[in-house]
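Entry 14. Two folds queued back to back today. First construct below, sequence then structure tokens.
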Amino acid sequence: MPTVRLVVASTLLALAACGPDNGRHVPGEFTPDAYDSDQDDDGVVNESDNCPGKANPDQSDVDGDHIGDACDDDSDNDGVIDMSDNCKLIPNTDQSDLDGDQQGDVCDDDDDNDSVPDATDNCSTVPNTDQADADNNMVGNVCQGVLNPLLSGKIPGGHLYTVGLATAGRYTDVVVASAPLQVMGLPADAQIIHAWLHWAVIGTTTPTVNLNGVPVTGKILGITPDTCWSIGINTMYRADVTSMITGNGTYTITGLPSTLSGPDSQGISLSVIYRDKNEPDTNFIEIKDGAYYQQGVPITTVLDKVPHPAGYKTAKVTHFVADAQPANDTLTIDGIPYGGNDAFPGNVGAMWDVRVDDIMPNFPPGDTDTMVTSTVTASGDCVAPLFVSVEVTNIGTVVILKSNETQHAAPTIAPPATPVTPVVRRPGRNGVYLP
């Protein structure tokens, strides 16, 4: 019966065409390659791949969070997602970019764009290609007699905390052997982003102090003339102590000179920039520091590119001032007087001031960034500012990962627990399949 043989032969050919050898997969039918052990074809099996949904043969994971950089929204784990981060692979929650080149300062080896690398630049945040240094104190001329940029950044949940104490002995006739700086009120889970010590001495040099018994060496910020004591020049220092500040507690400073006459110290302050991880607002902080004194002449510091959009919540300005005592001196911020005729009386002890002013009542919102201008005039006093900052909260422009958000890694594909054996039915007569 040739017709029957023809039908059977045609059916067998059809079955052969649909078999596993042709590389095709019938939906719902299990074949040996239905589970792909290397989903992204990068040579790393899914179970070991830190980004199984996207090829990353190098398995790079800069922040060590077990999520490959190719799948990680925040590759450096600094709280700022990569799409907004100006330094994606080095943590810089502050996003400071002093020269405005869209490259975060921690990623930028020339923060003032003067073609002199920061490592050898004697004024690393103010352009000075000539590197002129008339007094050979390793501080460029353009950084002398002025406060210079230290940081300018928009920080998720960021705030500035400051504390200070006077350490001079000459005014009170009491030698100050130690300065216990008490940090209080930081959130328990605060992330310490930056911490610096600032101090000043008169008639001597003291580059190294002790913080809780550990030596800390500062960078010289500059010098000023004698502040009406006939002792000698003032020298200002800054030391980065971020790794030593862990949160609330007492941080005791020793090693500063404190005498009843002759060379002496002025005081010391601790400034801490921290992030409150539970705060949704993005806040702006700008700091300038240095060494600045002119008797009877207005001492002006301009904090620039300060955002103050509609809906901002707070605005404050902070000053550290050396040689502060009860005498006639004034402070204006944007032309508005603060502190009357003795703005810097030595509010943390004779010869040192840590002054914080709420400027919000005189700081109306605006659509564009603005300047905040501080002017200190030492008329009857001989004060020397060395630190000025501004903080404006809720300026809301940095996209961050909220604390309850998770990173987005491709899910791991697991093989079927028990492979299903395919059922193949055999053809019977006239092309009818048999069970």
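Second construct, same run, same settings:
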Amino acid sequence: MVVPGARPHLQRLTDFPESRAGETPNSGGRRGRAGAPIAVLRTVAFAVALGSLACASSGPSGEASTRVRTGEDPSESSGRPPVRVVAPDEKTAAIEFRKLVLKVPRDLVVGVVQTGRPCRQSGSLTWKMSRDGSAGDDLGALLLDELSSAGYAVVGDRERLFDDPHARRAEYVIAGVIRDVRANACYPGGPKHSGTAEASLTVDWQVFSYRSKSVVLKETTSGTGLFPGAVDEPGEEVISRAFVSAARGLAANARFHDLISGGGEPRARAEQAPIPISYVTSIARSTASVESVVSDSRMSVVTVLAGNSMGSGFVISRDGFLLTSQHVIGESRYVKVRFVTGREVNGDVVRADRVRDVALIKLENDVYPFLPLGQSSGVQPGADVFAIGTPLSENFAQTVTKGIVSGYGEDDGLRVLRSDVSIHQGNSGGPLLDRWGMVVGLSVSGYILMPDGVGVGLNSFIPIEEALSALVIQRRESR
């Protein structure tokens, strides 16, 4: 059953996709202004530890030698209104938040806690949260609020009950690792009263690009927070301010700004030597039936097995060069392929292009059945096309489905051919054929309605000529 109003998510067609397939962005939510006290960390374990400072402290003051890092006045860096970094007329890519991870060893002394008037009786403040804990979505909400206040475009709203199919999609995802947490606090009237606190922390940020499917930026920023006057629960508040300070450091980072504004991600492909392959681009159009042509084509289509991943591929030359999708092979250097006859052959990954999502494999030396390569422009909207591949399970190897060309478009700025021909996970890398058996595209992705995974007949295929260009394949005349 399809949930009414469900948003179609772009689904990678491999059993183990390295993509945003069917994911719901872990972003958005409550976002408070950083200029005022922000008590959003009550469910975060390290904030709870700071909220009960006296209970976590012990030993003489000399044992606690950690210091909060200082730079500019912490109260200014975290308490003042956000500064706009992006010019009002400047356009930026959309950003979403993924997660924050804490990297602080358990039982580490992170500072001191003091009591009395004046603050003299002190003990060690010890970290009691286990390593590699999640810092929760509330900090992510603070991060997105700071980026939005600085002028960046952010997406994601946890308060929305249903996805908006017309909402803007993110081009970049931000995640971070919080480390080097330091904190000091003083409770003049005892641990159950108001107090003052200071804190500092460091965040190692990573920015992932959906376009290049890779981490395109790594930056580190530090932040400090200070409550010089007595407030209730200062531990929670001061950690919030320290994180906000680090988030503002990221927003103001020149490399981050250049990336999100469109000038920082490299788009040019490094020069690569052409790979000469004797593939066929024309065939004599026989009087054979479409059924015979498609049936014969199955002999050249394979199931690609790469580690735990399964997909499809097809042979393009008599000496065993084969095309498939990059996300099928992942980081594998060697794969195994299975023909419709059951024959299994080993293959070496010769070249792969993550951006265009294509890969070239060379099979063991032998003579293989192969498919002729056409042009995507050779099929017009409404023309019959056929997809061959291994959807869902190896039991469905070399399955044929029929549809029509729906049109042409773009996914992540890359040209695709669209068709309503039925494909599923496992079809990735398989061929899309015209009625003459010429390859016009490679199966790469399709839209499905989540959470039920129902296909909607909106599927994308990489034009065959662009696959050859991305891999720098040069046609060599047959000898």
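Quick look at the second one. Helices lie at 45-51, 74-79, 137-149, 234-251, 254-260, 290-297, 326-329, 464-470. The chain has a mean pLDDT of 75.
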